[in-house]
Amino acid sequence: MEGYIELPKCTLRYRISGSGPAVVLLHGYLESLTIWEELTMELEPDYTVLAVDLPGHGKSICKEEVIGMDFMADSVSAVMRAVSISKAHLVGHSMGGYASLAFAERYPNWLTGLCLLHSTPNADTHEKRSARMADIKLVKEGKKEQIVENNIPRLFANHNQQKLMGEINHIKSIARKTSESGIVGALNGMAQRPDRNHIIEQALFPVTMIFGKHDNLISMEVAQTLEERHRKARTIYLENSGHMGFIEEPEQTFSAIKSILK
Asked: Which of 36, 198, 248, 260 has its CB 3.0 to 4.6 Å from that of 25, i.e. a possible disulfide?
C-alpha cells in the first residue's frame, strides 16, 4: 500500500506491505523508496516492510534550505506513528544510514536493531564538506545533470560499471527526478551532521555495518577502522560491491540482511 502524510514542513510518501515484525528501509542521496522493491519482495513474506521517501527525495516534497538528519529522523517517526509501528529494525543506505543514526539518537526505544548499509557514523571530512558545497553551487547554476552524471556511476565498483550500465542508468533516472531544492537541502543536512560513533558504542540494540570492498566513497581503511572501533557491532564485507551492494550483489546483500533480522 502506498500512502502520504502531511507534516508542517513537508509531504511524505511511504509504502508498506507484508506482515510480521517491522523493518524500515531508508534510501540514500539521489534515490527514492523505489530502490527497495526487490528487497521488499524478499522480506514481506515474514516482515512488515515500510519504505519512506526521505524529505526532498522521491515524491516527498520539502523545500527547506537545510534538510538535517534530525529532521529526516523525525519525519520517519511521523510515518511510523501514522502506520502504527512502534518498534522496528532500521536499514539505512548511505544518507539513509545517517538518518537512521539520528533516529537511534532521538528514538532509541523504538528500535529492535540498526543496519548501516554502505554508511558510516563519521561526520564529513573537510574535503567531503567542500565537495557538497561545490555541488550545491552547481545545482543553483542549473547544472543538476552534471551532478547526476558525476555521482551515480561512482556509486558502483569500477569493475561493475560496464556490466551494470542498465542499472546505473536506472538510478540516474531516479536521481533526475530529485528536485533541486531537495538536493540542496540534503547536501546541507549531510554536511552539517555531527559525528555519531557514540550511538553505536552506546546502543542497547544490535548494530550491523555492511561495506563493499570496492566502494569509491567509503575506503576499506575507513571501514576497517570502524570495525576495529565498534567490536560490539557486526561487520559484513561484500566481496564484489562498491556502494550499491543491493544491486551489485543482491543475493549476498539480501541474505546478510535476512540473517541480521533473524
From this structure: 36
Whether this model's pTM surpasses 0.85: yes
Picking from 186, 187, 238, the residue whose alpha carbon sits closest to that of residue 208 is 238
Residue 154: pLDDT band (50, 70, 90) is very high
| Distance between CA atoms of residues 10 and 139, nearest Å | 21
- Per-residue CA distances from 83 to 6, 22, 72, 93 (Å): 13, 11, 17, 22
Please answer whether residues 132 and 187 qualify as being in contact, where contact means their C-beta atoms are separated by less than 8 angstroms. yes
Only one residue has cell 536493531, namely 113
For the record, the C-alpha cell of 60 comes out as 516527498
Question: For the packed helices 180-192 and 144-151, what is the interaxial angle rounded to 10 degrees?
Answer: 60
| Percentage with pLDDT > 90 across the chain | 99
Q: Which domain holds residue 234?
A: 2-261
CATH classification at residue 209? 3.40.50.1820
List 48's β-bridge partners, or say none: 18, 22
The enclosing H or E element of 167 equals: helix 165-176
Length of the chain, in residues = 262
Residue of 262, 245, 241 whose CA lies nearest to 254: 245
Contact assessment for residue 177 and residue 238, using Cβ atoms and an 8 Å cutoff: no
Residue of 166, 145, 151, 150 whose CA lies nearest to 247: 166
Backbone φ, ψ for residue 64 (5° rounding): -70, 140
